[in-house]
Amino acid sequence: MEKELRFPVKPEEIDGLQVGEKIRISGRIFCGRDAVLPKIAGMIEDGSIKDADFSLEGGLIFHTAVSRAGVGPTSSNKFEIESTMETLSKGGIRMHLGKGALKPETAKKLQENHAAYAVIPPVTALLNAGTLSRKLVAFPELGMEALYELEVKDYPAVVAIVNGESMYEQD
After folding, report:
1. Contacts of 28 (CB under 8 A, 6+ apart)
2. How far apart are alpha carbons 39 and 35 in whole angstroms?
3. What's the CA gap between 110 and 6, in Å, rounded?
4. For residue 32, pLDDT beyond 90
């Protein structure tokens, strides 16, 4: 059975997840990758995020660009993405969504901040069908790599890291 998560969520909803659990994601989520995530992390670090026209609290950030072709996950273990996860989690992001294995140190930082990482199949057509709307919210000069907010329904994913456990660690 798949667990349904509607974003934004509360930290305890994330803490109740298990590695390998199948989830369905609905609600408002953010999209960003290499170009925009360091900018958002910088806003959190310098406090200017409080002046933004959006709130990350309880949010999900999908590691993707948004184009007319649709959305599909990019590798979350790129330095520009993985290195922002701790700061974004401190800033209110409860789930990071993408693809690829992350470092054990990142899993620990996610746990400390009541955040999780889930992987999503790279199937753009499937995700396009579940995308109800999209809105550019910040950094329009970055084109398809700007920060977008989507309204989604039933995005499928698998919890990959939560509570300090990772599906990528070998026994």
Report:
1. 7, 8, 59, 149, 150, 151
2. 7
3. 19
4. yes
Contact 6, 91 (CB under 8 A): no
Locate 67 and state its tokens. Answer: 């184009």
- The pTM of the full predicted model, rounded to 2 decimals, is 0.79
Domain count for the chain: 1
> Domain limits at 72?
3-164
Alpha-carbon distances of 121 from 62, 78, 100, 124, 163, rounded to whole Å: 12, 18, 11, 9, 22
Distances (CA, A) of 58 to 6, 18, 69, 128, 133: 10, 18, 28, 23, 19
Domain of residue 130, CATH code: 3.20.130.10
Q: What is the pLDDT of residue 66?
A: 86
